[in-house]
Amino acid sequence: MRKKYKFQNAYGSYEEVLKDPEVDFVYISLPNQLHFEWTFKAMEHGKDVLCEKPIADTAAEVEKLIECSRRTGRVFMEAFHWKIHPAAHLFREILESGEYGRILKTHALMTATPALPPGDIRWQYDLGGGSLMDMTYVLSFTRFAIGADTPEEVLYARARASSEDPRVDEAMDAALRFTDKKGKDVYGTIYTDMKRAWYLGLLPRVWELPSINVETENAEVFFYNAMMPHIYHYVEVKDKRTGKTTRKTAYKGGMYWGDRGEVWWSTYRYQLEAFVDKLRGRKPAYWVTNEDSVQQMKTIEDVYKSSGLPLRPGK
Ligand SMILES: NC(=O)C1=CN([C@@H]2O[C@H](COP(=O)(O)OP(=O)(O)OC[C@H]3O[C@@H](n4cnc5c(N)ncnc54)[C@H](OP(=O)(O)O)[C@@H]3O)[C@@H](O)[C@H]2O)C=CC1
Ligand SMILES: O=C1OC[C@@H](O)[C@H](O)[C@H]1O
């Protein structure tokens, strides 16, 4: 394997990676249930960590990671790569410009069509599976758009349970009430589905990319393909007052990256640049804070609790 892929080193276990003094930081892309354990162990071994989403199974686990980070002096970040891309910043700039009034409601969705294959980690409760866990981007889009930490309440959360395991949400449909920075109500609906029905039973909905629509007082703002904007995206603004529709894109630059970046940089490249900047003591253009990860995880918990499904087991 090492020779085939020309890796400098290969290891027999994750422990061995952590014990190698040559390793500065690790990227963790294990099943969700293992994120907490290995992020914790990595920091204990003096490594900084970039870990996939969701960073843990519960908010309490994220709090423990924060405590570990403070004690060890190591950094960890939840890999919400989409937030670090200039397209996300364009979206935010439009919403925060004040030109379209305040946000009234949002709708975010992420679906899998064709369905995720049987046996996939996302179907396994003990590994932190479930559509809301995997497609947690929808809550991330919503919280980012509104600029809110956690919802005031979950108005409803309806899970469609997997036929294999009633604890696993094959799909989740929920409505949440947030308050904006001025204390006004904003309503957010989300939909996740790991087994999305085909259009008219005939066509996989390949066009249904993870996206968010925001209704403000004066406009509808639609961010298409918010999760992987480097492949294709647009931010469309339909002005309710004039009936005019405009579309914008951003593959580089913007309010956080300025002159830095290339149009071909993926969300992952932007993420890595920010991460390495942080490790080298430079100010990252954008950073997913640990506190934000706690709020994100609390929001996931709120939705699960309201749906009647159990929280994922954690470590
Ligand atoms: N940012 C992004 O774009 C993406 C993020 N993700 C995230 O990455 C994580 C992993 O997803 P994905 O790569 O699709 O998962 P896979 O099932 O493809 O890979 C999981 C990996 O974890 C290892 N592993 C260790 N312990 C276990 C265990 N008990 N059961 C199963 N696998 C184990 C597997 O090892 P082995 O090979 O030895 O079996 C494998 O390398 C998830 O948190 C997911 O949310 C996933 C896809 C895209
Ligand atoms: O993070 C992710 O990004 C790509 C998706 O297809 C996947 O299910 C998810 O884990």
TrEMBL record:
The keyword Oxidoreductase applies. Residues 4-79 form the Gfo/Idh/MocA-like oxidoreductase N-terminal domain. Residues 92-185 form the GFO/IDH/MocA-like oxidoreductase domain. The keyword Ligase does not apply. It comes from the Eukaryota. Keywords: Oxidoreductase. It catalyses: D-xylose + NADP(+) = D-xylono-1,5-lactone + NADPH + H(+). Belongs to the Gfo/Idh/MocA family. PANTHER family: OXIDOREDUCTASES, TRANS-1,2-DIHYDROBENZENE-1,2-DIOL DEHYDROGENASE. This is D-xylose 1-dehydrogenase (NADP(+), D-xylono-1,5-lactone-forming).
